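Entry for the shared binder. Reason: the reviewer on the internal report wants the predicted structure included alongside the sequence.
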Amino acid sequence: MKKAMYFACLLTLGCSPMRVLLPRTDSKSFKSIDFCELPKHKGDLVCVKGRYSGVEEYWSFKTTSVNGCPDKLDVELNLQEMKYAKLGFDRKSNRVHNNYMNSYLLIEVIGTYSDQEKEYGHLGHNNSVFVVQEIVSVTVKRSKTF
């Protein structure tokens, strides 16, 4: 009976489309790579830090470097509809989306990079995608432009 209840609980909670729980990874066990090095690590599970910003429905994950990357690298951040309550990601993301003119998110994430389809995001605005497995850290920053 105990196993049947456990199985029923797994089916009920595990199949919920609102929340996907992934096992926590140790971010220290992943080599942090420079954002501009992402194309050299296609399909590898890596840890990278970047700036998530945009206007209206045009959002991208980009390098934090002032000079940018040698090749134009605008990455769609694929969060797979996950919830990140522990880091306050949903709250911080909403804050930045509502104040996109003067703020952005500084995010450190673990996941995989791909550029197979060449067009990602709203109307193919981005040229690659980073599929997030885990958000390590997230901070709201003020833009210096405005």
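Summary line for the report: Residues 2-14 form the longest helix (13 residues).
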